[in-house]
Structures are given as structure tokens and as C-alpha cells.
Amino acid sequence: MKASASNSQRSWNRLNQQIGACDRCPRLREHCESIARVKRRAYQDFEYWGRPVPNFGDPDAKLLIVGLAPGAHGANRTGRMFTGDRSGEWLFRALHRADFANQPSSVDLDDGLELYNCAITAVCHCAPPDNKPMAEEVDNCREWIDTTFQLTPGKVLLALGQIGWKAILDQAIERGWHTGRRPKFGHGAEVALAEDRWILASYHPSQQNTFTGRLTEPMLDAVMARARELMES
């Protein structure tokens, strides 16, 4: 078991190094670097990451969360998925309440945050302008999500938002886990897959959803509780 865990961690680290060094999308690279130079006034003393953001969490996780892309002044600043912005505050509080994280806060790389049996990836690993990556930019990132799915057991695949839902379904269809019609995205939607896997859906914890009440903390907690239930079934 120790040798297997060590091998998976090495493969995970190698993938993250490759993600961090990616330069396939000039528009996104220029955008991320520009944000890192100009900075937001509140973070003028913060050294921005300004590069593609690696995966985060346990490479042997049974819960794999798929988001859209790093936030311009969140993960693009801190270098860790969902860390340093309001979306991350919501997500990590929910993960902590569901015992997937050791603490409810996500400030920076040195804050001591750890995930338990949970990993986080994204459809696009660079912060896109207006949170809207182009189709070819998503395609350029496809290798990274392909490899993430190869490395991570992922019994429960949780999509945060419709683009994450599409990415998971693409993986499920390609791997023969799902056949037939593509199910529609909706908060709380779930789909049984082959090989004892499941897709779950949540609205993305963006301010657009949380400020308007489209997504509430009890709604997010219910999805996390269902993920735990499916993992342990």
C-alpha cells in the first residue's frame, strides 16, 4: 500500500509540474501575467502566482471535484485551486463541514489546508478573461483533465457548474462509463455510471450564484452529504 501511494503521489506531482509549466494558450498566459503585474489594490503586497494552477488534494481521492477555471485574484494569485476568493470560502467551508477538509478557510499556500479523500481540478487551469475560456483553450487543457481522471480513482465526480458537468460527461462517455442520452445539468442532479461511479452536480459557488441566493450553504451541504453517502455505499 505504501509503495502504491508513493507511486500515485509521484505521478500526481509530475502532472502538476506539467500543468504549471504549460504555455499552450498565449491569450491566457498574457492575461494571467498582466493581472499578476497590475494586481488588485487590496493585494498590492502579494506576489501573484500568475501561471497555470495545478490540481490540489489527494491523488487517491474518491471524490473528484471539477470546477471551471482559477479566479483572477483567487487561485491566479495564490497558486492553489479555489484559494483566496469568495468561491473558495464557500467551497472549503462546505468541504470542512462534510469532513473532506481539515479547516474551513483557504487563504494561501502556507495556511495548512489539507483535503481528505478529495481532489480538485478544473476544465481550464489558467484564469480566463471574464471567466470565459475559448473552446480551443479548453481543448488545449484537455490533456490535463484526461490525465487527472486516469490517476484519480474518483468514485464520485462532482461538477461545479455546467461546464464542469460537460467535462465529466465527456470523460464518462469516452471511458465507457456512460452510454445513451446526455443528462441535463441541474443543482443536485446525479447520474449512476458504470464501474460503481457517480456524477453529482452543484451550482458553482461563484458570487453570481451565492450573492443572489441561487446557491445557499444548505444546498451545497446537501450535495456534499450525498457525495459522502455515495462514496461510502
Blueprint (SSEs and pairs):
Elements: H1 2-20, H2 26-38, E1 56-57, E2 63-67, H3 75-78, H4 86-97, E3 118-122, H5 135-140, H6 142-151, E4 156-160, H7 162-174, E5 190-193, E6 197-202, H8 207-210, H9 217-231
Parallel strand pairs: 2-3, 2-4, 4-6
Antiparallel strand pairs: 1-3, 5-6
Describe this structure in words.
The chain is an alpha/beta fold and 233 residues long. The protein has a single domain, classed as Uracil-DNA glycosylase-like domain (Uracil-DNA Glycosylase, subunit E, 3-Layer(aba) Sandwich), CATH 3.40.470.10. Helices cover 41% and strands 12% of the residues. The protein has nine helices and six strands. The chain has helices spanning 2-20, 26-38, 75-78, 86-97, 135-140, 142-151, 162-174, 207-210, 217-231; strands at residues 56-57, 63-67, 118-122, 156-160, 190-193, 197-202. The protein has a six-stranded mixed sheet, with helices on both faces. A hairpin with a 3-residue loop joins β5 (190-193) and β6. α1 (2-20) packs antiparallel against α6. The two termini are 22 Å apart.
Features of this protein?
233 residues, alpha/beta, Uracil-DNA Glycosylase, subunit E, six-stranded mixed beta sheet, globular
Number of helices: 9
Sheet with the most strands?
6 strands, mixed
> What's the number of extended β-strand segments?
6
Q: Globular, elongated, flat, extended or rod-shaped: what is the shape?
A: globular
Q: How many domains?
A: 1
Specify the structural class.
alpha/beta
Would you give the CATH topology?
A: Uracil-DNA Glycosylase, subunit E
Within CATH, the superfamily carries the name Uracil-DNA glycosylase-like domain
In helices, the fraction of residues equals 40-55%
C-alpha-based Rg, rounded: 17 Å
Low-confidence sequence ranges: none
What is the second-level CATH architecture? 3-Layer(aba) Sandwich
Query: What is the CATH domain class?
Result: Alpha Beta
Major beta sheet, strand line-up = 1-3-2-4-6-5
Elements, N to C (H/E):
HHEEHHEHHEHEEHH
What percent of residues are in strands? 5-15%
Mean pLDDT: 96
Distance between termini?
A: 22 Å
